[in-house]
């Protein structure tokens, strides 16, 4: 049974004792910034990943939905982990361990072929479903307003300009598809040249371009060849200019506010830099 020092609730420990009674922890993979516990464990089921959310966690439910509705085609080809157990109420899931090395921080993060594969995988993921969300734009605006109401260190003039822009954003809906929500090299594995995907805690139905945002702010900005390879794998470019602008603003505000809230100064500075770039362009 998985015991202290891992911050699991009694109900979560009881479920794990039933699912993986002989589990032993090999490594703690958590970031320490959010309330999600992530453990690499060995058991009679094989090597597994355990994810347990805190009481206010919203990621486990999203991840379980993704595994149940969208991830199976990748699992069938070994490109994503298989869900073994899950409980929405207790915010707990277990997947099979997926072999590979994180792309982030390795030479693979600079390899166009990795991005070509990632683009192809994403196109297949997006292509599973498409529907019109009649309230998408309204919720996006409310999300940015909600973030700006939280404690942050965004420059007041930038805040003024964001609020002014928000007032001109369109109401109504947008076409949405299954999205990963954190599509970037820290959630890609490389194993003998094959790209695999992990961490579906932000998966949801969104405009397809939303899965381009985190790549655009870092890897594409660093090397245009990576963007070209990604688009070659994806097969098209879904970034309609006005919708893309709104996605970038929402991401920059969310980054600066969230990072300040969890005390990640380096990530917070990225959010501030993105905002300055966005509003310098329209100065």
Automatic annotation (TrEMBL):
<dbReference type="InterPro" id="IPR002575">
    <property type="entry name" value="Aminoglycoside_PTrfase"/>
</dbReference>
<feature type="domain" description="Aminoglycoside phosphotransferase">
    <location>
        <begin position="80"/>
        <end position="244"/>
    </location>
</feature>
<protein>
    <recommendedName>
        <fullName>Aminoglycoside phosphotransferase domain-containing protein</fullName>
    </recommendedName>
</protein>
<dbReference type="Pfam" id="PF01636">
    <property type="entry name" value="APH"/>
</dbReference>
<dbReference type="InterPro" id="IPR011009">
    <property type="entry name" value="Kinase-like_dom_sf"/>
</dbReference>
């Amino acid at each position: 049974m998985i015991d202290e020092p891992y911050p699991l609730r009694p109900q979560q420990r009881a479920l794990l004792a039933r699912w993986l009674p002989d589990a032993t922890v090999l490594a703690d993979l958590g970031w320490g910034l959010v309330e999600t516990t992530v453990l690499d464990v060995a058991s009679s089921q094989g090597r597994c990943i355990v994810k347990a959310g805190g009481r206010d966690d919203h990621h486990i439910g999203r991840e379980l939905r993704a595994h149940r509705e969208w991830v199976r085609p990748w699992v069938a080809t070994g490109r994503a982990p298989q869900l073994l157990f899950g409980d929405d109420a207790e915010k707990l899931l277990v997947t099979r361990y997926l072999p590979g090395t994180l792309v982030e921080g390795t030479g693979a993060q600079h390899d166009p072929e990795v991005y070509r594969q990632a683009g192809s995988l994403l196109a297949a993921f997006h292509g599973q479903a498409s529907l019109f969300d009649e309230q998408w734009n309204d919720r996006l605006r409310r999300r940015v307003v909600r973030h700006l109401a939280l404690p942050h260190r965004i420059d007041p003039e930038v805040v003024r300009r964001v609020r002014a822009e928000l007032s001109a954003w369109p109401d109504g809906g947008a076409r949405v598809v299954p999205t990963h929500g954190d599509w970037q090299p820290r959630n890609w594995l490389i194993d003998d040249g094959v790209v695999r995907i992990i961490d579906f805690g932000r998966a949801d139905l969104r405009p397809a371009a939303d899965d381009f945002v985190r790549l655009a702010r870092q890897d594409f900005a660093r090397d245009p060849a990576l963007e070209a390879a990604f688009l070659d794998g994806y097969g098209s470019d879904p970034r309609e200019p006005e919708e893309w602008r709104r996605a970038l603003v929402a991401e920059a505000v969310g980054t600066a506010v969230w990072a300040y809230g969890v005390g990640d100064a380096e990530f917070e500075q990225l959010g501030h830099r993105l905002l300055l770039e966005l509003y310098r362009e329209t100065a």
